[in-house]
Design goal:
CATH architecture: Roll
CATH superfamily: BH3618-like
Order of helices and strands: HEEEEHHEEEEEH
Number of helices: 4
Strand order of the largest sheet: 1-2-3-4-5-7-8
Structural class: alpha+beta
């Protein structure tokens, strides 16, 4: 399953409904309810904890990482109750940097079933992805002048 996620990501961000991450995100197992809000630029979003946990800046890796692809195994798709490609959004936890490119964690992508509002953070095997992959975001003009 190779999802084309831009439309699903946008739909998920606009909905602002709660997304449940069974078992939470890596390192944060007690925080399982999140929502998405539009972020500071194209393909950037805020993953907002609805139960007092940390918030995360996330990016659409298909927007910023040339040649990015993700094949979900049947087990990974079942984990988020995904039956169709159009239901799946893929995001990467991202870290902004002022003097250098931002970085995205492609080794641990976040996958969301936008239709059922169920998400999971995957841990992908191998070292071909990386946890600090550089990218240059397209920021809103208000942030570029700040």
């Amino acid at each position: 399953m190779s999802p084309n996620v831009s439309q699903a990501t946008t739909a998920a961000a606009a909905a602002r409904d709660t997304i449940t991450f069974q078992g939470g995100l890596l390192g944060f197992p007690d925080f399982v309810e999140y929502s998405l809000a539009e972020g500071p630029g194209a393909g950037l979003f805020w993953l907002i904890s609805e139960d007092g946990g940390p918030n995360f800046l996330v990016s659409d890796p298909f927007t910023y990482i040339d040649g990015y692809s993700l094949d979900l195994s049947p087990e990974q798709a079942a984990r988020i109750e995904a039956d169709a490609l159009g239901e799946v959004a893929v995001l990467a936890i991202s870290v902004p940097h002022k003097e250098e490119p931002w970085t995205a964690n492609l080794q641990g992508p976040i996958v969301i079933n936008a239709a059922r509002r169920v998400g999971a953070q995957l841990v992908l095997p191998g070292n071909d992805r990386g946890v600090r992959v550089p990218f240059v975001p397209a920021l809103a003009s208000v942030l570029q002048s700040a």
